[in-house]
């Protein structure tokens, strides 16, 4: 796990050094800078496989040079195939396997590799650059391109100098709590979408981006439940096993939920030694899952560490949040994620996680919400509008926001999208239509829940969950590996009948039934509290002064397109405990901290 940088802009070596230093936490073990022709390569290494200096980057093979961030989990299989073709390897690293694999197969190497990755390979003979990002966007890839000049980096911070803010991106952030791909917080920098590769011909000054993987139209398997359970169990075992390859200590995150419990169970089964597990706890029992996690640990015989999170811990981590999440990012669970990785680093360098299970196996609460409102959405929109206007809901004591929102939503697809986007709620006017990049979910399945799950994978997983995990772990030089994000599992889950994964009142049915082989059902069948913090309560109490100071009129009035009067009303309602507007207040607070950290340049 590392940080990459590459450019043909003629910066001085001292400038490149400063850029890399700004994200040095991504790779504290070695910093490599190399000039080849008119290009400058930079790399920050977090040593995981083959700790020898021979595996430092940038790495060369013949006329090819690579900078690479990530892990290729099946690299040994690919290495054997290349050895059979006559190649000789000088290292035990997946970097060399990827580099030689590209030499042998070109872009077709992407079909062979299973992992999380973002890399660039330069061919000095043809003066062309090939870059790619993993299928699900686990690893970040930012690029700047203008008239043949480019920069590539693992984070946006080294590319912020002299760039102007993308004001439309601020509106996207206020809608989503993140900035969706391919956009970024600055005008000239973009994200390479997951499952895409990018080719730059430096002779002709052309850039071309192509898709090599995506979700496909669903073909549901004709399979018995027991066979599906067995096949999935085997797939998960293999996904965990290949993620245990490491030359440094490895552990597993363990919450009170199904996904991390199953990953930790499988790891305990296949690991040759006792595994380390780590969890976050809170003083507030509404949010605390640590006692359940400790029960899991005893059953699985792991060496367990619980980290208790207090409001003071959160306050101390806010500067770290803005330092490492170098775009505005308002998922408050990033805070306990930072704390978890901070403690974990004291014991291990690599940790398994359960991220990705909710998307593929229908685990989020909003899936239940979709099913509750499904019948309402079947009523023609014109009739639903009349019901709202008539006031009949009040007569039957049904004047709830949930029912009104469903009645006012035009279509099922709109209802799904409303889960992830506030559709201009905090804005003076609706801006860039970022959802146009995510419309594939409408065509891959006719199933209401599968559509929502697919949008969850394409929009939220890449831009929220993966960003949260990458930055929180890299902030403390920890590598997190997520077996549920193995593309084979994502593809397999989508072929299973929906009732294998979701039954009324029983989310993630098939995962629960697999977990029964390791942990008694009465232990894990407890209410899920989520990996969240009671930030809404804290901003009324311990952190109230901090929030009111940050959300002053001077700041609010310079946020482009913000409906200041509406926001101030929401803030007042929240502080007076009339309503819960935590999500909106946290967005603006995070944005204020981003302005403080990086400054603000208004476009003219």
TrEMBL record:
Coiled-coil regions listed in the entry: none
Catalytic activity, EC: 6.3.5.4
Domain of life (superkingdom): Bacteria
Catalytic activity: L-aspartate + L-glutamine + ATP + H2O = L-asparagine + L-glutamate + AMP + diphosphate + H(+)
UniProt pathway annotation: Amino-acid biosynthesis; L-asparagine biosynthesis; L-asparagine from L-aspartate (L-Gln route): step 1/1
Residues annotated as domain Glutamine amidotransferase type-2: 2-203
SUPFAM superfamilies noted in UniProt: Adenine nucleotide alpha hydrolases-like, N-terminal nucleophile aminohydrolases (Ntn hydrolases)
Keywords for the protein's UniProt record, in alphabetical order: ATP-binding, Glutamine amidotransferase, Ligase, Nucleotide-binding
CDD domains, sorted: Asn_synthase_B_C (cd01991), AsnB (cd00712)
GO molecular-function terms, A-Z: asparagine synthase (glutamine-hydrolyzing) activity
Pfam family, one: GATase_7
Matches recorded under NCBIfam families: asn_synth_AEB
Assigned protein family: Belongs to the asparagine synthetase family.
Name of this chain's protein: asparagine synthase (glutamine-hydrolyzing)
Source species of the chain: Gelidibacter pelagius
The organism's taxonomic lineage, starting at the top: Bacteria, Pseudomonadati, Bacteroidota, Flavobacteriia, Flavobacteriales
């Amino acid at each position: 796990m590392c940080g990459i940088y590459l450019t043909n802009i003629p910066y001085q070596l001292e400038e490149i050094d400063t850029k890399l230093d700004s994200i040095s936490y991504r790779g504290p073990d070695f910093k490599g800078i190399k000039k080849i022709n008119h290009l400058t390569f930079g790399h920050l290494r977090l040593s995981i496989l083959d700790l020898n200096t021979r595996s430092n980057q940038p790495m060369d093979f013949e006329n090819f040079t690579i900078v690479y961030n990530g892990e290729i989990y099946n690299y040994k299989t690919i290495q054997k195939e290349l050895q059979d073709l006559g190649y000789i390897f000088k290292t035990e690293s997946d970097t060399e396997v990827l580099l030689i694999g590209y030499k042998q197969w070109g872009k077709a190497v992407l079909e062979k590799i299973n992992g999380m990755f973002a890399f660039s390979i330069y061919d000095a003979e043809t003066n062309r650059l090939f870059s790619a990002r993993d299928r699900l966007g686990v690893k970040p890839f930012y690029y700047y391109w203008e008239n043949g000049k480019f920069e590539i980096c693992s984070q946006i911070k080294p590319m912020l100098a002299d760039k102007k803010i993308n004001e439309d991106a601020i509106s996207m952030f206020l809608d989503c709590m993140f900035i969706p791909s391919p956009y970024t917080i600055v005008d000239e920098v973009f994200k390479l979408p997951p499952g895409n590769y990018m080719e730059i011909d430096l002779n002709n000054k052309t850039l071309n981006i192509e898709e090599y993987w995506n979700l496909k139209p669903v073909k549901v398997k004709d399979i018995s439940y027991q066979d599906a359970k067995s096949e999935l169990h085997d797939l998960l075992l293999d996904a965990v096993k290949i993620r245990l390859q490491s030359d440094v200590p490895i552990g597993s995150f363990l919450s009170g939920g199904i996904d991390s419990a199953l990953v930790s169970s499988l790891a305990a089964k296949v690991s040759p030694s006792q595994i380390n597990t780590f969890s976050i706890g809170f003083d507030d029992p509404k949010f605390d899952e640590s006692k359940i996690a400790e029960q899991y640990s005893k059953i699985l015989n792991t060496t367990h560490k619980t980290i208790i999170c207090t409001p003071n811990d959160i306050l101390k981590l806010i500067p770290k949040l803005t330092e490492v999440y170098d775009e505005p990012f308002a998922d408050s669970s990033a805070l306990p994620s930072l704390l978890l990785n901070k403690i974990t680093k004291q014991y291990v360098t690599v940790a398994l996680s359960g991220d990705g299970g909710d998307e593929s196996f229908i685990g989020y609460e909003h899936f239940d919400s979709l099913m509750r409102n499904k019948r309402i959405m079947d009523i023609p929109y014109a009739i639903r509008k009349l019901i709202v206007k008539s006031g009949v809901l009040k007569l039957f004591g049904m004047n709830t926001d949930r029912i009104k929102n469903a009645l006012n939503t035009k279509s099922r697809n709109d209802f799904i999208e409303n889960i992830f986007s506030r559709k201009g709620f905090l804005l003076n006017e609706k801006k860039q239509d970022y959802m146009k990049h995510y419309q594939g979910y409408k065509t891959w399945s006719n199933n209401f829940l599968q559509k929502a799950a697919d949008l969850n994978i394409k929009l939220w997983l890449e831009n929220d969950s993966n960003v949260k995990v990458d930055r929180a772990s890299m902030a403390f030089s920890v590598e997190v590996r997520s077996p549920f994000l193995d593309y084979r599992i994502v593809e397999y889950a989508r072929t299973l009948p929906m009732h294998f994964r979701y039954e009324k009142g029983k989310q993630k049915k098939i995962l629960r039934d697999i977990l029964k082989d390791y942990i008694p059902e009465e232990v894990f069948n407890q209410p899920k509290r989520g990996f969240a913090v009671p930030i809404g309560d804290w901003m009324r109490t311990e952190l109230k002064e901090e929030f009111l100071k940050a959300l002053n009129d001077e700041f609010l009035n310079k946020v482009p397109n913000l409906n200041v009067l509406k926001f101030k009303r929401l803030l007042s309602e929240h502080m007076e405990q009339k309503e819960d507007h935590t999500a909106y207040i946290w967005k603006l607070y995070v944005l204020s901290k981003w302005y403080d950290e990086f400054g603000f340049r208004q476009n003219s």
